[in-house]
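re the bet — no i am not wrong, look at it urself. input seq straight from the record:
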Amino acid sequence: MSLDHSRYQALQMARINEPKSLQLALANRSRRTVAGKDGKLLLLAADHTARGIIAAGGNSTAIADRYLLLDKLIRGLSIAGVDGVMASADILEELAWLGALEERVAIGTMNRGGILGATWELDDRLTAYDAEHIKSMGLDGGKTLLRIEETDPGVARTLEMVAQVTTQLADLELISMIEPLPYIKNSDGKAVLDPSEERLMKVISIASGLGSSSAFTWLKIPTPKNPEKVAAATSCPILLLGGDPGSNWQDVFDGWDRALNVSNIRGLVPGRALLYGDELDVEAAVTRAAKLVRRGSL
């Protein structure tokens, strides 16, 4: 299923002539339980652009083409075993208006203030959804990014914000999906991901304890080489992220395959790895991921 160009043009005109129709399409869509019957989830991640990430693979502006992004998402959502999408408000409203979110899980991204490359990147403030609008727009939960680097003062504000949001979402009985990532500063003072599994376990432990309740907390983490050891740091359900595509796509799928054997690793939430692969098209990549999550039931 592809996005017809005339339908995309109609969406553009709706933004001019019927802007309320985008909000209504999202708020009034038909919904389902989040985890479904098998307690597994495969979500497509599409919140990159709201933080200024528009590159994929070797193309520095690949994700900046909105028609192409929506087309890829609609094609991915049509694959059996795909549960929904995690995205910013613009993309969720567009997908809903196009009819692609019926009976799908919709998670709204919340803090996109840590713009890629900014000096304040780890001071990651709410610039998208807040908890009240996660509820009023009929979403199933909210996602926050929590990058922890011990020398950056902005991290303390981000920690406090994620804790407050987690409490608010739990009070509303909505999912708080936290993406805890260990960061370090390189020689240029730029914040970069720390590959240490010990530090990943540390930030998982911190994220699990945020807020006044963890009952609705899910975690989103990179795929570890030792998934049993890392996932043991929490009893919260875990989803694995994807990252940027590249020539190592087979290694990415193999890592997912191993990790999905761990009891509290419940699925995947990749974006560029499935939508913008160099060697696999959207249908092939998403189908392969869905079969890993569903383990022979598809």
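see?? The chain has a mean pLDDT of 95. told u. also The radius of gyration is 18 Å. so pay up
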